[in-house]
Amino acid sequence: MKVETPAKVNLSLRVRGRDESGYHPLLSIVQAIEPFDTLFFDVVDDDRLEIEGIRLPVEDDNLVWRAVRAAVPDRSRGLDVRLIKEIPTAAGLGGGSSDAAGTLLAVEALFGLEHQPAIAAGIGADVPFFRTGGLARMEGYGEIISPLAAAAGYHLALVVPPFDLSTPAVYGAWDRLENANGYEVGGSALPPSLRHLGAFINDLYPAALSLVPQLDDWRAELATRWSRPVLMSGSGPSLFAFFESAEEAQEGVDLVPAGSRFARVVAPVAYGARLLNDG
After folding, report:
1. Which of 11, 25, 46, 211 pairs with 219 at a CA distance of 20 to 30 A?
2. Active-site residue flag, 60
3. pLDDT tens, position by position, 87-116
4. How is the chain split into domains, by residue range?
5. What does the angle CA 155 – CA 234 – CA 85 come to, to the nearest 5 degrees?
6. At the top level of CATH, which class does the domain 2-149 belong to?
7. pTM for the complete prediction?
8. Residues 37, 85, 99, 126: which is the catalytic one?
9. Catalytic residue among 8, 85, 99, 203
């Protein structure tokens, strides 16, 4: 069984202080995008996870196994999983959550299970979104997903600077900064198909910057070279800007400073994790 899972960008991310649950309520406009991870699943005697493209833990705390355990706590057979990573890690692009969503989709098909939204929400904040994909409003702790009409007429230049940011660390820094707000990008700086959604703001940007000050050097340099505002996705450090066409976005990518760990033109996609075949 083969599953394809997209990345995402948070076009906007508003964060509120921790509530009695210990989590931060949020409101985000999220868009599924290229690139994709690909997962292959086989039912076998013993569990095995092989990851290609990057070195990542394959033990029980990997989100793939967390998704398997959540969906099928009692199994008589094992799973052989091969994961081909294309989505950069520790970048605010949701790669781990996307893989978890794809794993749930595959496990449900392999074991004849019904989709249970509460399971996805219990694994990670972005997992429910990746079961829907496209363009959506995400609320609560990530479990409330409201699909939005697809927006067209733009591509993104997406850049991951040469450093990682830990999501828990960024949220911890945001708490210490006492609910800092990000900068606003709106109006004519947005593609026409997105302007009805209002200005975009990422409240985690000041927190990410407090941990890695060079993030603002990258943002400012890209904004200068591209002559347009640059936004951050999720907890960072991925940076992106809107372009009218793939060709124009490629011209932007060609101007990216040396040293980034990822720089590519990406397009929005209208789906989330999807089953490509059943073997």
Report:
1. 25
2. no
3. 999 999 999 999 999 999 999 999 999 988
4. 2-149, 155-266
5. 70
6. alpha beta
7. 0.94
8. 126
9. 8
